[in-house]
Design goal:
- This protein is mostly helical.
- It is built from 17 helices and no strands.
- 70% of the residues lie in helices and 0% in strands.
- Helix 4 (69-90) packs antiparallel against helix 14 (312-324) and helix 6 runs antiparallel to helix 10 (224-252).
- The longest helix is centred in the last third of the chain and has 39 residues, at 355-393.
- It is globular, with a radius of gyration of 22 Å.
- It starts with 6 loop residues before the first helix and ends with a helix.
- Residues 1-14, 27-32 and 208-222 have low confidence and may be disordered.
C-alpha cells in the first residue's frame, strides 16, 4: 500500500541545492498549504466583491501577484540560481575551491540559526547516524553537480540532474514498497528517452549530429570528458534521490530540517576540503601551481565566490515560495532551471543546442510535470476526502 502524500513528503522533494533553513514544524503555514490555482484567499474574494465595477486594472493585477506570489518567488529563485551557475561556469577558476568558500559562509549562517533556536545538533536524540548517512549521500550529489559544471554544458547537466524526480519515485516504490503508478511508468519512459537524447551516445548517433558545447571548452560527445560528465551528472541525480528518500524517513522521526541542513553543510565542506587537498597536493592531472595571490585573489575568483555566496538568496526565495504555494507546484516550477539554462546557452554561447538536446530536455520536463501534477492531484484528493469525513462526523 502506498504512503499518503503529505506536505512533508512534498517538501522533501524540493531542490536540495536550494534547501531552506527554516523548520516546517515551527511554521503553521505549512500544515494546510493550498494551491493558488484552485484556492483564492478570502480577503481577495471580499475585496473583489466590494469593488464590483469600480475596480481598476491595477488592483486586479496586485491581487493576482499576491495570489500567485509563491510561483513568482520560485521562478525568480530558479532564474537566479541558473544565471549564477552559468556565469561561474564561464570564469577561469577552480570551481570546487569557490564552493568550498561558499560552504564556510553558509555554515556560519546555519550554525547561527541553530544557536538562535536553542537546538543541540550533536545530541544523541536526533538519529545522528541516519542523518550522517543522508548528509554524505546528499553531499556527494552536490559535489557531483559542481564537478559537472566543469565537464558539461549547463543545460545538459541540469537536465540529467533533474531526472532525480523520477529516480526518487522509482526508488520510493522499491524501498517503501509503494505501488508503481501509471504516471510513474510514463514519466520513467519519458526520462529515459530524454537522457538518451541529451547524452547522444556514439553507438546511436553519428558525430555530425553533435553540436553541444560551451564558450570556453568545445564538447565532443565521444570525448572522455563528456562521458565522465554524463556519468557524474547521473550519479548526482541518483545521490540526491537517495538523500530525498532518507530525508522523508528522518521527517517521520520528527528531525528538524535545520539540523539536517547543518549536517549536510558540515559534511559537504569536509568532503570538499579533502578533495581539494588531494587536488592541490597529490593529483597528477592538476597543472596549476598552488599560489594564493594568483588563484584566490583574482577578479574571477572573487566574482565567482560572490556569486556562489549570493545563491543563498534563492534559498530565501524558495522558503518564501513554499510558504505561499503548494510544495508539489514549487517542485515543478523549480524545473524551469532547464529552460533558463537552454535560453542562456543559446543566446550567449557560440555553439547552440541541437534538436536532440532540446527534445531530451523537453522529455525530462514532461516527466517532471507528470509526476508533480500526479502528486498534487493525490494531495488535493486526500484533502477533499478528509474534509468530507470531518463534515460527516460533525
Amino acid at each position: 500500500m502506498s504512503l499518503p502524500s503529505t506536505q512533508h513528503e512534498a517538501l522533501a522533494n524540493l531542490d536540495p541545492l536550494l534547501q531552506p533553513f527554516e523548520d516546517i514544524n515551527d511554521n503553521p503555514t505549512y500544515s494546510d498549504q493550498r494551491s493558488s490555482f484552485f484556492y483564492t484567499p478570502a480577503n481577495v474574494i471580499i475585496e473583489n466583491n466590494n469593488s464590483n465595477k469600480q475596480s481598476t486594472l491595477l488592483p486586479r493585477i496586485l491581487h493576482y501577484l499576491e495570489r500567485f506570489s509563491g510561483i513568482f518567488y520560485s521562478l525568480i529563485a530558479s532564474l537566479l540560481f541558473t544565471c549564477s551557475n552559468f556565469i561561474i561556469q564561464q570564469l577561469d577558476v577552480v570551481l570546487l575551491d569557490v564552493f568550498l568558500v561558499r560552504f564556510v559562509i553558509q555554515g556560519f549562517f546555519s550554525f547561527g540559526y541553530i544557536l538562535y533556536k536553542g537546538y543541540h545538533p550533536f545530541s544523541s536524540n536526533y538519529h545522528n547516524l541516519l542523518i550522517l548517512i543522508r548528509s554524505i549521500i546528499a553531499a556527494m550529489g552536490s559535489i557531483c553537480f559542481y564537478l559537472g559544471l566543469d565537464l558539461l554544458p549547463l543545460p545538459d547537466l541540469i537536465t540529467i540532474r533533474y531526472t532525480q524526480v523520477v529516480w526518487t519515485a522509482i526508488l520510493s516504490s522499491i524501498i517503501f514498497r509503494e505501488r508503481l503508478t501509471l504516471p510513474t511508468i510514463v514519466a520513467s519512459i519519458s526520462t529515459l528517452l530524454g537522457v538518451v537524447c541529451v547524452a547522444q551516445p556514439s553507438f546511436l548517433f553519428t558525430k555530425s549530429n553533435i553540436t553541444n558545447g560551451t564558450l570556453s571548452i568545445p564538447m565532443n560527445n565521444n570525448s572522455k570528458q563528456h562521458i565522465s560528465g554524463m556519468f557524474i551528472a547521473m550519479l548526482c541525480a541518483i545521490s540526491i534521490s537517495l538523500g530525498i528518500i532518507l530525508m522523508k524517513k528522518l521527517l517521520e522521526y520528527k528531525v528538524r530540517e535545520s539540523i539536517m541542513m547543518f549536517y549536510f553543510i558540515l559534511t559537504t565542506f569536509s568532503l570538499l576540503l579533502i578533495k581539494q587537498i588531494h587536488f592541490w597536493i597529490f593529483s597528477k592531472t592538476n597543472h596549476r601551481k598552488f599560489h594564493i595571490p594568483t588563484i584566490y585573489l583574482t577578479k574571477h575568483f572573487i566574482a565567482a565566490t560572490s556569486l556562489a555566496t549570493l545563491q543563498l538568496i534563492p534559498m530565501v526565495l524558495t522558503q518564501k515560495a513554499i510558504k505561499r504555494e503548494h510544495p508539489s507546484i514549487v517542485t515543478v516550477v523549480q524545473a524551469t532551471d532547464i529552460i533558463f539554462a537552454l535560453i542562456l546557452k543559446n543566446i550567449f554561447l557560440t555553439e547552440k543546442s541541437n534538436r536532440l538536446a532540446l527534445i531530451g530536455s523537453t522529455l525530462v520536463l514532461i516527466s517532471i510535470f507528470i509526476l508533480g501534477g500526479h502528486k498534487f492531484w493525490l494531495d488535493r484528493r486526500n484533502r477533499i476526502r478528509l474534509s468530507t469525513k470531518i463534515e460527516e462526523t460533525n
